[in-house]
Amino acid sequence: MRFNRSLLTAAALLALAAPAVAHISIYEAPLLGSSEVPAAATLGSGFGRVTIDFDLVTMRVEATFAGLTGNTTNSHIHCCIAPGANVRVATQLPTFTGFPSGVKAGSFDGTFNMSLASSYNPDFITANGGTVGSAFNALVAGLDAGRAYLNVHTTSFGGGEIRGLLVPVPEPETYALMLAGLAAVGALARRRKAG
Question: Which domain holds residue 99?
Fold first, then answer.
């Protein structure tokens, strides 16, 4: 009886939580000089997060960085290539609007309307079907496949001082299902032990 109650409670919690989840995908990466191609000899490092909101058709870019050798000149996302290679810029040129310039440490938080051509490198749109919609789909596919990277360029490293391959972060529903499964396994184990 307890097992059934625990299972019903977990199912009810999942049912309540599911409608509150937005249609988003999150990608993260440590930003390091060793991730550059070729590697950059720097002690600089950082962290990047990209959140795609499919309902709003937006991309939020968050980045923190410190210890750079040179002063920042620009930052953007490159897509779509296998790890260990370089490829064209997918997003705004020469840099994200509002990205801090001329500093060795800082942070950035910007949200871009991905239904606007101004959010992309025009060459990326042309190379990926010629429309903003096809460019958006190509960027998301590249992010999902771990084939896009966030790059911070500086005066010391024009090709990029720190970089990180953006990888998908599991969705909240995945964690909720995992927790529900663990609760069910725990309840079953308690039931077997009691019986």
Answer: 22-169
From 165, 167, 155, 164, select the one nearest 74 (Cα to Cα): 155
158 in a structural domain: yes
Residue type, 104: K
Give the residue carrying structure tokens 């000149």: 73
Which has the closest alpha carbon to 118: 137, 93, 100, 98? Answer: 93
Q: Where are the alpha helices (DSSP H) in the chain?
A: 2-17, 122-127, 132-144, 172-194
Which CATH number characterizes residue 157's domain? 2.60.40
- Number of separate domains in the chain: 1
Inter-CA distances, 98 with 74, 94, 171, Å: 10, 11, 29
Give pTM, 2 decimals: 0.78
128-145 CB burial, b ≥16 within 10 A, e <16: beeebeebbebbbebbee
Instruction: State pLDDT tens for residues 10-58.
Output: 555 444 444 445 699 999 999 999 999 999 999 999 999 999 999 999 9
